[in-house]
Specification:
Rossmann fold, single chain, binds NADPH dihydro-nicotinamide-adenine-dinucleotide phosphate, 10 helices
């Protein structure tokens, strides 16, 4: 009895040791972080800086990016620089990747995190808005991945895709946003399959986030959501841990994302009901 028991303990110890994150894993790594002027992306940049990575950040607002770069250097980044521009333009997405090639000489991790502005409310039928949001939240992710792939293959690096519970299950009031996040799952989960078939050693981590306390999200949803937002700095660190450990999916926080999703295949109606019950809904007309 003792020998199989010890074997089990040893196997468990080996598995946990293999699966332990250490900040040194990201020391000296060359990383692009998109949408890093505010919110979760900004916090990802600060964690990377503390871990001693080379960081290239991007967003539209130059003044904010300058401040984030300055802070990253204070926190100990091996190097920090920015490129400003809009991800509505696929050429800009490709330009950011070229900048990593020129200034960092390669790339170990591509963190795709930016998100375009959308509305919080019933779907208003504006097809052009859906198209524009797909360009920012989806097509630019595809364009950056395509451009970065040769460098990532060489470094056996990682792609990190920041998505949402709204990209795994239908959510009311964010229809265009949800559509773009579902598209990311389809593209990157399929690409991961092709990497496996072709023995391409580039990991893809899809991050499924719940409600996080960034200014944009709190402004949009704090009044109507019944739950408290989780802290963005902790969320950012969990994303980096999942990325460094080359996880296929990361759920933050687990209790409000992974656990409810377990219902999806066996009790979809119940899950839909639970999602709706998170909102303080206005009374139906005539009620
Ligand atoms: P923020 O709104 O705080 O940050 C968004 C970032 O994207 C900013 O740096 C913004 O900078 C940049 N950005 C916006 N539009 C463009 C554009 N057209 N081109 C280039 N950059 C742009 O978002 P969060 O930190 O809240 O969200 C980060 C990620 O986490 C997103 O992918 C989001 O979907 C996901 N997420 C967030 C949740 C939350 O509750 N906060 C929940 C679930 C998922 P600038 O304006 O300077 O361009």
């Amino acid at each position: 009895i003792l020998i199989p028991f010890l074997g089990l303990v040893l196997a468990f110890w080996f598995y946990s040791a293999r699966d332990t994150f250490k900040p040194e894993m990201l020391r000296g790594k060359r990383v692009i972080v998109t949408g890093a002027s505010t919110g979760i992306g900004e916090q990802i940049a600060y964690h990377l800086a503390r871990m001693g990575s080379h960081i290239l950040i991007t967003a539209r607002t130059e003044a904010k990016l300058q401040n984030v770069v300055r802070r990253c250097l204070e926190l100990g980044a091996a190097s920090a620089r920015f490129v400003s521009g809009t991800m509505e333009d696929t050429a800009f997405a490709q330009h950011v990747v070229r900048e990593a090639q020129t200034s960092l000489g390669g790339l170990d991790m591509l963190i795709l995190n930016h998100v375009g502005a959308s509305y919080f409310g019933f779907f208003d039928g504006d097809v052009e808005h859906v198209r524009k949001l797909l360009e920012i939240n989806f097509l630019s992710y595809v364009a950056m991945t395509t451009s970065a792939l040769p460098m990532l293959k060489e470094s056996e690096g990682s792609i990190v895709v920041v998505s949402s519970m709204a990209g795994k299950v239908g959510f009311p009031f964010t229809v265009p946003y949800s559509a773009t996040k579902f598209a990311l799952d389809g593209f990157f989960s399929s690409l991961r399959q092709e990497f496996a078939i072709q023995s391409i050693n580039v990991s893809i981590t899809l991050c499924i986030l719940g409600f996080i306390d960034t200014e944009r999200a709190v402004r949009a949803a704090a009044e109507v959501l019944r739950e408290r937002p989780a802290p963005r700095d902790e969320c950012a660190l969990e994303i980096l841990k999942g990325a460094a450990l080359r996880r296929r999916e990361l759920y933050y926080r687990y209790s409000s994302t992974r656990l409810p999703l377990l219902l999806r295949d066996c009790a979809a109606e119940l899950l839909d009901y639970l999602v709706r019950s998170r909102y303080r809904l206005p009374a139906a007309p005539g009620a």
